Predict the 3D structure of the following.
Amino acid sequence: SISIRDVTKEIELDVVHGGTVTDQYSQTKAGFEVEGSINRKEFGLTWSAVTEAGNVVVGDEIKLQLNVQFIKN
């Protein structure tokens, strides 16, 4: 789940395991790529503006992209 401005919602994320290695210091590390999206209006983020050409400055969909690495203790 994710919380923004006192609103908490369950979200689905796509996770890809990039691999697990042991480095030269004998630390085991695992890497992951995570992607998903949320609609900002569902969290009360409603500010918007339009350019002179009629384009929206801020869209409703927020894309989430993370690259994370975990180290085993």
Notes: Residues 2-71 form a domain with the Lipocalin fold (CATH 2.40.128.110).
